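Anyone opening a protein record will find just a pair of labelled lines. The record below illustrates this layout.
***
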Amino acid sequence: MSKVLSLRGNFTVADNAILTDKQIFIYEAGDLTKGWEVESAFIWPRDTRAEIGSADGQYQANASLATDEISATQFDQVSNSADNRQMGWCNAGYQLRASSVGDFLANSGNPANPAPFVLDPQHIVKKGLWLNFCTTSDSTTSPTREWNYLVVLKPRKLSTSEAILHLIKNVAQDVDN
C-alpha cells in the first residue's frame, strides 16, 4: 500500500472576489526523480451563514490547483485549462437564501458538497501547490466567508526525462511546441 499525504486547511475570501496564489504545499527534494501526484481534492464552505442582502439568488464558486503562481486578476483566469500551471479545477453552484433566522448559502446539489476537483492525471507536483479561488453571485452584498479544502497527494517516482518534463510543465511552459 502506497503512502499518501493529505493537506487540509481553510482560507477566507469575500463573496464576489478573487483569492489568488495561496500556497498550500512546498516540496523541496534533492532527488529530481521524486514528485507528488494529486489523487483527489475538495472544497466546501465553512461559513454558510452571512448577510446576503434582500433577495435569494445564485452563487458560483470556482477553484483551481496550480503548480506555480498564476497571479489571476480576472475571474476567468482562475479556471483556465489552457494554462499549464493549472492542474485541477472545481466549479460549484450554490443558492443564496434570505431567511428570517439568518441568510445562508445552500448547496444546490450540483456538485455535491464537498465539491470535487477535476484533475489532470498527467501532472506531477515538483515544487509546490497553489490554490486559487473566486466566487460570483447575484447579490451586491459581499460578506467574507471561510472555505475548507482537502487535497490528497501520492508520492511518485519518475525517470529523469519524466522529471525534466514535469519541471518544465510546472512553470507554465508549452510542452507541445
